[in-house]
């Protein structure tokens, strides 16, 4: 049986791209607090569900995976984390009440970059 991990990362990245499109539209056309709260809630829900799903797959497949496959799975999780943090940083930019979270998110996003450099072969490596 093959790994589900790469397919799950691809599916979750497509979901994120849809959210990023909504976020992009919001940032270019609407500055309402209600819209920002709604998209933030959707981003947080997506990230939580995605992180749980990928971590569970990693846990299940860790037994039969080799070191290289495990590293690729961690790369996928790191990439998802970066997507979320980058989106959150864009959303919070200019929001005085969220400056601490903005700074934290930006710092965390930058800290993931070193773990995202890859020459590994995987189904979703093009997304990375």
Q: What does this entry show, briefly?
A:
The protein is about 75% helix and about 0% strand. It has about 130 residues and is mostly helical.
Walk me through this protein's architecture.
The chain is mainly α and 128 residues long. It has one domain. Helix content is 77%, strand content 0%. The chain has four helices and no strands. The longest helix has 29 residues. The protein starts with a helix and ends in a 12-residue tail after the last helix. The model has no long low-confidence stretch (mean pLDDT 83).
Produce the secondary structure layout.
Elements: H1 5-29, H2 33-61, H3 67-92, H4 99-116
Helix pairs in contact: 1-2, 1-3, 2-3, 3-4
Key features of this structure:
4 helices; elongated; 128 residues; 77% helix
The mean pLDDT is 83
Percent helix: over 70%
Assembly state: single chain
- Determine the structural class based on helices, strands and strand pairing: mainly alpha
Order of helices and strands: HHHH
What sort of overall outline do the alpha carbons produce when their principal axes are compared?
Answer: elongated
Q: Give a count of the beta strands, DSSP E runs of length 2 or more.
A: 0
Low-confidence stretches: none
Radius of gyration: 16 Å
The domain count comes to 1
Number of helices: 4
Separation of the first and last Cα atoms: 25 Å
- Percentage of β-strand residues: under 5%
For the sheet with most strands, the description reads: none
